[in-house]
TrEMBL record:
The chain crosses the membrane at residues 52-73, 85-109, 130-155, 167-192, 204-226, 265-284. Residues 13-25 have a biased composition (Pro residues). It is a multi-pass membrane protein. Keywords: Antibiotic resistance, Cell membrane, Membrane, Transmembrane, Transmembrane helix, Transport. Residues 51-287 form the ABC transmembrane type-2 domain. It is found in: Cell membrane; Membrane. Belongs to the ABC-2 integral membrane protein family. Coiled coil: none annotated. Residues 1-25 are annotated as: Disordered. InterPro entries: ABC2_TM, ABC2_TM_bact-type, ABC_2_transport, Nod_factor_ABC_transporter. This is Transport permease protein. It comes from Micromonospora humida. Its main location: membrane.
Amino acid sequence: MTALSEEGARPTTGPPDPAAPAGPAPRLPGLVRVAAARTRLEFLSFVRERSAMVFTFVFPLALLVIFGSALHGQPVAAGVDYEQYFVAGMIASGMFGCSFQNLAIVIPLERDIGGLKRLAGTPMPKSAYFAGKIMMVAFTASVQTVLLIVIGVLFYDLTLPKTVGPWLTFLWVAGLGTIACTLLGIGVAGIVKNGRTAPAVVSPLATVLQFVSGVFFVFATLPSWMQGIGALFPLKWMTQGMRSVFLPDSFAAHEVAGSWEHGRIALVLGGWCLVGLFVAVRTFRWRNRADG
């Protein structure tokens, strides 16, 4: 009897009973937490790529110094010199570069090395990847804008608005323009064949748009066919919106329409947000075409 009791008290070490109820499944982190982790990873990757970081921030400043110095003091209109006009255009161009140009080149490179394919196979919400990219765009565009404004104020007599209205205009133009260009950058990233061809396709396109959108030259002095091409794309309307913020109200008479056209700027940029979203949804790929 005692032996039986001792044997019955002995713990079993065999396989678990398959009929036993399973424990609760591990709870996955929420979208906000995952998006924050992706944002941190994007930031660390950006900081570690010193050449990319320097190019992102230094290249627009170098262009501003070169063009501003070469054409220093040349009047565009009464009370407005070329360098002041150029600073406003470069602020918009910087936002365009941080969003459209950067994403359309970086995302295909990430897809080539298999990074997107691996992410797609994890439980991570796919929206967290895009949230990280958007937050990185917002950070780089903000820093670059501050640097350009500081250089403009210190060296090129750029006058900052003294009332709330122009700053509100700055916010909605920057917001709509950056969203539109971010979505377009994601969309174009899905169209280009691979990471090797992305810079060859995207960089010339971005440069042409800068020339026909009134960044380097006064838009009203461009040939009408160039104005027509520039008016099709968001960068032209972003530069016009930034001019309305940083240039005197009297300069509106020198715009093609003779006014700042804030209503049209909002409509065009909002429309490009919808176009960019449609293109991004339809074209984005997590795998290379060779992967199937």
